[in-house]
Amino acid sequence: MVYDIAKDDWTMLPEMARERDECTGVFEVNKEGLFRVVSGYCTLMQGRFERIAEAFDVGEWPWLPVEEEVVPERESSKTCVVGGDGRIYAENFSYMEDLIPGLPEEIGLECLIRVPHGTLPLLRQVCSRWKQAIESPLFHHLRRSAGFSHHLIIFVEARQAVRCTLRFFSSHPYCRLVALNLSTGEWAPLPSIPLVFVSHPFFFWVVASGLHLVVIGGLDRYSVSCNDSVYVYSFLSNTWRHGRPMPGPTRFLFACAGTTGNQVIIAGGDDERKNALKSVMVYDIARDDWTTLPEMPREHEDCTRFFSAGLFQVIGGSKQKTLQWSREEDWLWQAMEEEFSKTCMMGGYGRIYKRGVGGKMLLVKEGEEWREVAELPEDVRGSPIMVAWVEILMVARVESCCWPSTVFLLEMKKGVATGWRRVAFPKKYHGYFYTACVDI
């Protein structure tokens, strides 16, 4: 049956192909418009459990069979949710061992999604059952849906070495990452980047993708040579690993963005001879592998990037009228005729932010039109740095030391600004200013 909320009326629909008991349903909000029914615990003659699903086309009203494999006993799950991207998240949690002894599975999962993000690496070590649950995409989707995920801003801090070694002197700077937890207001340093990265380079990128941070590329401050190194930090294990280096040609001043699917895309830049490049590559974090993508129609050097809703956007030079996008599915480049500045920032829900004429007003673009959303605080007018994600925009003013002196946060509710909030920086943190944003 289907219930029409506006008409306050019920309508009978065609029956399913077979009976369903103890089942759940998910609805895909995408071009297919399918209502899926997943049944649980249907015992077969072999004493095994079967996952059975049917999809219902809400346009034509036919039931469509959905083939699902037969899984071993006590590994069937009817825990399914649909994300905003139209993907179905489902996990086959092993029920031989309860998440929390004496509690139903759903209650145990509700308890785990409420733990602070900093304790997740410890929870993974409790038992294989908790490790399996915490590493599943469903677990983190539930955390975000229930409002228990933490919003982190990652700052790269360049500091002076505290002691001399045979190789590095105290005047040599080194890097460390510092996380600002917007949910709690707490500051905390992340584990040190591997020793090979101790000499702080120029023009490197720090991007977030899924539950990872990726530090990539750069220009060596002493030899002025391009760095092709890749370092990956996992928030679940609280450890760094050395990723596969970038394939040639080595480059710097390139565009780099992390996707929601544990991938990092790089495009354009300059090679070691200052030749502009138009090649594009994608790094798969899970597979630790690089894939070459179709080249851009023209070279882009000293460019910036955005990634939103499956589209990768490159803006070349200080101002470029042609925006170029790549779709994740077919990697086709398309030109968009609109003038943007490199200081523009892509936020959540496809919003693009920029400063208005005179630097007094903050503008946002949703759809085809620009509109004023808020007045910038006086302390950050001029040439502020902006960082945006989901419903939050951070605006900072950077002094000559390259570390922000003033930071404000603007929260958006359904496209409407709710007001600025000032963030205090601890005096013990100082150095260069690079950022990345993570939800965990």
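(the above was protein one; protein two follows)
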Amino acid sequence: MGIKVCATDLEKAVAGSRLLVVGPDDDEEEMKDEIMSDLQDLMSSVDKSGQGVCVQASTLGSLEALLEFLRTSKIPDIEEQKRQDSAPQAVFPCVCKIIAIINKKDPIIVGVEVQEGTLRIGTPLAVVKPSPTGERQVVPLGKISSMEINRKAVEVVKKGQSGGGVAVKIEGSSYESSRVYGRHFDDSDLLYSR
């Protein structure tokens, strides 16, 4: 059921608000206050901080229902989810010096000392070697799959944290040829995150 209203100042009217008929015995100001209290109740329940979603509805009742639905829904924090999703792709800069060789290939296991930055599981490592033409050549070794300090697994190692060094297991990807200590790199090379 609907009604068509023709009047002045309709720009200020809110669709879906109550329509009251003023009779000869009614107080017009009291009825205006009653209508305005509905609107103020709605406006007080709306978060106007500027963060979140913008809500628009055709009627006041629809708007109230939509706001209540959004208030009771458990909407996840999208920014936090994006940050967690992109975390595995983040590579922290790191420079390591090889101090011991435990396994030469498949997987490479070396003892290293972190000289700069932060070493983390999942960090791709490479060495930089001079090529026969004199240019620098980056030789990818693989990603760190595990780390241990004094036979205890660790997730993150910072510069100066490992007094005697950290054992690092480096596993190459299946589509690359395996790297071998002594052929592709040696203990004089520094390991770089890439």
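Reviewer note on protein two: Residues 98 and 187 are 5 Å apart (CA to CA).
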